[in-house]
Amino acid sequence: MEELWWNHRLHDAGFRLTHPREIIINILRNTDKHLSAEDIYIKALKINPSIGLTTVYRTLDLFNQIGVVQKFDFGDKRSRYELIKNPQKQEHHHHLVCIQCKTIIDYNNFMKEELELMNKTEKALSKIHHFMIMHHVINFYGLCKNCQTSA
Amino acid sequence: MEELWWNHRLHDAGFRLTHPREIIINILRNTDKHLSAEDIYIKALKINPSIGLTTVYRTLDLFNQIGVVQKFDFGDKRSRYELIKNPQKQEHHHHLVCIQCKTIIDYNNFMKEELELMNKTEKALSKIHHFMIMHHVINFYGLCKNCQTSA
DNA sequence: TTAATTGCAAACGGTTTGCATGGGC
DNA sequence: GCCCATGCAAACCGTTTGCAATTAA
Q1: Least packed by Cβ within 10 Å: which of A32, B35, B105, B143?
Q2: Which residues put CB within 7 Å of chain C, the nucleic strand?
Q3: Long-range contacts formed by B19-26: CB under 8 A, 24+ apart
């Protein structure tokens, strides 16, 4: 059951595997999109109409805290959530955000070059500004294929 | 009066130079911080106690639209605003965000290298994903000098 | 003069919290 | 049976909007 590492993570952290949590995990497993809490809520309702939006928020927050889910902020107000595929290898990637339809595409090209620049930058900035960098965010904003043609 | 280009910009765009607008411009001129709407509102109250928070929001939005102010989002909920120093030369810079005290430091080291990587990336991504990139955001998150020692 | 701008109060939208009920272990 | 987890309603917080009063040009 290598696939179900999140269940073990939940258990190891002392939390129960409840029905809403299963539903939400499965929704996240079966999408390549970056869903908002409400997106997830709407999908969850179709599986169990008695689920509450509050539970979705609390579950996502829990998953984020125990490292099962990553929370993103792309500048529209809603937070968006992505299931971490493999907890071992920190698969570092970035996002293309369509400013029109809000679609988000993952990409991981030029990671070597990026890593080089980031290391260099981080080293310099910690010297110049005595700033200890923990992580960085790179986002590209523009128009996706569809929204270019429709515009 | 080279310094007061924002007034001309306002006028050229067909807007009035009102008292609240002057106050807000001056607050932004006299800080190196990235103030939120409320930060600005509190400072403005000391100059004119009858100013309204709504006006601050509307003014900042207007300034953003006519290119006098840049609006940023650093992941805490509030938007933050920075006066554009020189409208001619697009001074491109990025931010170090302290995750503890929320201080934001501007930096512009390694801009040549960054620009290279960004151009390369943008070109490749537009090919691979047919994505037309309009702008990008790079933020570093970590601990500033003070918060390292106090932690 | 008179249309743009303001301040107030109320609405808004995403998220969080208090609390009584319900469900895993 | 014990507590964690849930759902509901209400609070929260930054921001926006409707509207009547005010003000810059």
Answers
A1: A32
A2: A 16-19, 36-38, 53-54, 57-58, 61, 77-79; B 15-16, 18-21, 48, 50-52, 54-55, 58-59
A3: B19/B48, B20/B44, B20/B48, B20/B51, B20/B55, B20/B56, B20/B59, B21/B59, B21/B62, B23/B47, B23/B48, B23/B51, B24/B56, B24/B59, B24/B60, B24/B63, B25/B63, B25/B68, B25/B83
